[in-house]
Each structure stands twice: as structure tokens, then as C-alpha cells.
Predict the structure.
Amino acid sequence: MAKKKSKYYVVWQGRQSGIFTDWKECEAQIKGFQDARFKSFDTLPEAEQAIDRNYWEFVTKKEQAKPVPKAAPTHIGQPIKESIAVDAAWNTATGDMEYQGVYLNSGERIFLQGPFRDGTNNIGEFLAIVHGLAYLKTNNSTLPIYTDSKTAMAWVRKKHANTKLVLTPRNKTLFELLQRAERWLAENKYPNKILKWETEYWGENPADFGRK
């Protein structure tokens, strides 16, 4: 009987990162670990090259391929390169939420917050916009902010997060952040435009966490 071919397991994000030759060792690093990132390779050289590169280079293109965006009509045009984009991610299984902001032109992450327990995606999107506004004001920047959440944009205009989420001991910190964000909006003026990211025409929001 032919000997079973060995696999090499690269763990980018887990309890321990590295290259493992035994599945059980790999599984011990990723099982139950939120947002674990790993992939198997047939040869050691492939695994060694992969671990020094970005996980999404090996996963999103093949396993999470996104539809090709439509051509944008004239009245929509193309996104402004000199801007920042914000987005949130909400785990439907655990209720954990986190959000981040990136420079559109370079893709550089400028802030990442969370995960927060017992949150919602709308709350994350709202906090991301306000965080972005505060960040830009601190840096005397007039760059616009892109978000793909109409709900969060409406909350920011009204300076109030109209959430139906119930306060619990687990999400107390999140509610404190909401109150702080609403207070910031009430006390501050800003020149930055908050613009809708047109996913249908431009593809995924650059601040997306890539977990769909």
C-alpha cells in the first residue's frame, strides 16, 4: 500500500502560528479559536513561502471569490482615493463585534477596535464612523469617510445610535462607547464628508474584514 502523502499546515492566526506536519497539532491551534487562519499545502517549500505572506492571498481569491463589480454609472463615478474607509464585523454565532478603519489609497489600517461582546453590526458601523471622524479631527484632516452602512450614516446625522440592543453585563463597555460617541458628535463640528461606499460598482469595502 502506498504511503499517504504528508500535508503541511500553515497557521497564520491561532493559539500558536507556524508550520505543522500533523493535523492534530494544527487542530489544537485553531479549534475554538475565533477567526483562526490556516491552510494546508502539499510541500514544505510552499508552506514556508506562504507563512511569510498574507493569508488572504491564498484564501479569498479561490475560496471566497467575489463577484466582478458592475461598471459604475456616470453619476456615481469612482471612489475618492484620498479618503478613509470604515467597516465592522459581527459574529452571528458569538455576538462579538469589531470595527476598523483604513486609508483607501494605501490600504494601511489606521485603527482597529474590539472584539466587543454582545454587539451588533449597526453599532460597529456607527462607532467606526465616529472613531474615524475623531481621528481625522485630531490630525487636522479633511479627508472624507466611506461606509457601506446607510443605517450608521443616519445615526451619525441624528447624533444618536437608535439601537434596540439590550444592555447586559457583557456589553456594558460597548454602551459606554456609544454614549461617548454620541457626546462627541454633540460637542464637535467636522468638515469631513461621510460618503456611501458603492459595493455594487466598486467591489468590497476596503475596510471589510473578509469573513463573508
Remarks:
- The first helix runs from residue 23 to 30.
